[in-house]
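yo

u said u wanted the structure for the complex thing, so here. seqs first:
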Amino acid sequence: MSSLLGRNETLVAGVILAFCMVGALADPGFLSIPTLMDLLRAGIVLGILAVGVLVVLVSGGIDVSTTSLAIVALYVTTLFVQNVTPEMGWPLAFLLAAVVGALLGAINGLLIAGLGLPTLIVTLGTLSVFRGFLLTFVGSRLISNLPGGLRDFSRAMMIRGTNADGSFYSLPWAFAFLVGVVVLTWFLLYRTMLGRQVFAIGGSMESARRIGIPVRRVQFLVFVYVGALGGLAGIIHASLARVANPQDLLLNQQLPVLAAVVLGGARLEGGTGTLTGTLLGVSLIVLVSNSLIALGIPNTFQSIVIGFLILLGTGLPAWQARRAQRRAA
Amino acid sequence: MTDRQPLVVMTGVTKTYAGITALDDVDFVVRAGEAVCLAGENGSGKSTLIKLLAGVEKPDRGVISLDGVPHAAMTPTAAAASGIAVIFQDFSLFPNLSVAENIAFGAELAEGARFVRGRHVRELAARTLERVGVPLDLSATVGMLPVAQKQLVAICRALASEARLIVMDEPTTALTEREVRALLAIIQRLKADGVAVIFVSHKLAEVLEVSERVVVLRNGRKVAEGPAAEFDARSLTRHMTGRDLAEVGAAPLDPSAPVLLTVERLSKAGAFADIGFTLRAGEVLGISGLLGSGRTALAKALFGLVVPETGRVTLDGREVPLGDPLRAAGAGIGYVPEDRLTEGLFLTQSILRNVGVGRIEAHGRGPFLDMAGLVEDARDWLARLRVRAPDPEAPVRSLSGGNQQRVVLARWLARAPRILILNGPSVGVDVGSKAEIHAIIADLAAHGLGVIVISDDLPELLATCHRILVMVEGRIVEDIPRMDATEEGLARRLAS
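structre next:
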């Protein structure tokens, strides 16, 4: 049972509960459906990006270019739809964004799987290149008048209601995309041989090669998949924000995304990580960044809290492992 | 058994790397259900032969036939498809996946499965484990298993892919005596099942026991081949090294030699209890025990790496503070760990630096380091221990196991210790180097050092020690003088 207690998932779930209790004590209106809806809504884009990063971490790599990639995909797609096919419905526009993202991911994949470069170096490079290319060659103008299809999507609500005090709350259909991405990724990781190969490569690349896993092909596919998820996250983000901004602040979410995945128990050495953990990590990050504002705690304080959570979430299991080892010696 | 179908026939196989002949016109046959021992020192060509078998490398000349079909160029897929599986020393498993998945991964891959067939995987794994006759928890994570069980998983993985020839590279190095027994029993089962096994091993005695045939390689040539019954450890060693390596044995101990080290009532809960013994100058004392008997914890405690709860250690009549490696080293105790790769050496640093690091404080010049003096000192020790290093500036990683061990020894000897504790001094070292390390131990003792050798390699203890302590479940159960010790007697005491 000590393994259950020592797991990051349990730890993160505990911290989430603690946060909720503190929130409820500070503000009696905290534990309410509108708060929940706000948190779910804020977790959509972060969640899709985090699921992508999880897959890369499991394969033994790291990807710090996803937010940059998402912004390029959302802007290129919006620009294309606005100028070429203004009547395009949102499903096709979403598909287009995912394809743009997949193509950009393929660039990462080619550099990593094809040339055998380290994932951190490559994605640090493309993080900067994607963004620079967009602002230099595509455009830096903000598009605030989104094409009709994307506007329609942002208005489609899954849940809509009025609170006792007369305030409105709602959850957009975009949330269904997060659910879909989680289910699809779960299926790929746990029910297909490709997914098991991703775990195998993350566990030991040398062993994977020896047993005959096409390591490079799997690595390439991982980055294409993450790219597609990034493109999807990007276009959902633009649609919900009702603006396509090439200098979007989504860029600053890269570290919180990584933090969410690592908090959820994914190891940087690869081979380990769960979707449950990642979703819990995302919930915690969203909770901290949203509710601290609601409780009147300044923005700058958030980064301190998130930083401490990361140190706690990754440090505690490592410390426990060391203690167990010392006892065994 | 010679009437059985030959599984693999290699004829006139030659392989050169950059002008150096690794294998020279070698013939090699393996039949179904046969165990062949492939013996040879490092660089004799055994690993090249295995690589050719596995299709990783291609021969320059010669033919490899599988089931009577000649293959000019073997490929890894052709080798795997015809049932050749190599189990490398590191087992090549996935530490993050379950036992069942590790066992079935290769088979599922070969069948081209696209989706995970959970029940099929578990059934295949369970069936294979049954074939080997060992129960393992199918859902356990492989990284958490002890070495012996990891090896079982690797064997099962080969069997699950319908291996008919399993090549095992140094299968016994990391195992204790008892685990080796279990492994040999499994090999017997596999042979009865028609699976052929090639052993590549340094530990000679145990391999002879289970093999039908022995093939010895030296410098790329086959120098001996024959039924295992015709070989003994001595003749094998002679074929492998090309010379007769007489085990020197310990020189008789001067009866007037003073007591150097006294250990009294040393205890640590869960590790060892009430340990007491003395060590005299010039004496080589063996400590043997199975894994988990407390032998390694005791060795670490003497050097301060493990903190005992009670007890006293005195060296030359002065008490050595417990639980402090720096002060133990200062008092004159040296410790060469079992796992020199992770505990003893800075692998990527140069050979000279690795020797010199033990003496940094002796070469201080104010706050600065007298690098020239340090290097001079280190070179001197490399020469005295005959470390064969083409370039003392090369990283330690580039040396063979035997030479790495000598580098660790050189570092300690440079500090002029009074007592040296050697934990598994010849683990992963080939026969020739092993004999030389034993000679070094004898030489050190002759110069008045007290040496403690911790090992479960019984012939090694018999070859080096004056006295052998047997540990069982944390206690010293017996103190046997060399002249009264036999390998069988020791083995029986250990297992008791």
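The two ends of chain B are 37 Å apart (CA to CA). Chain B has two domains: 6-241, 259-495.
cya
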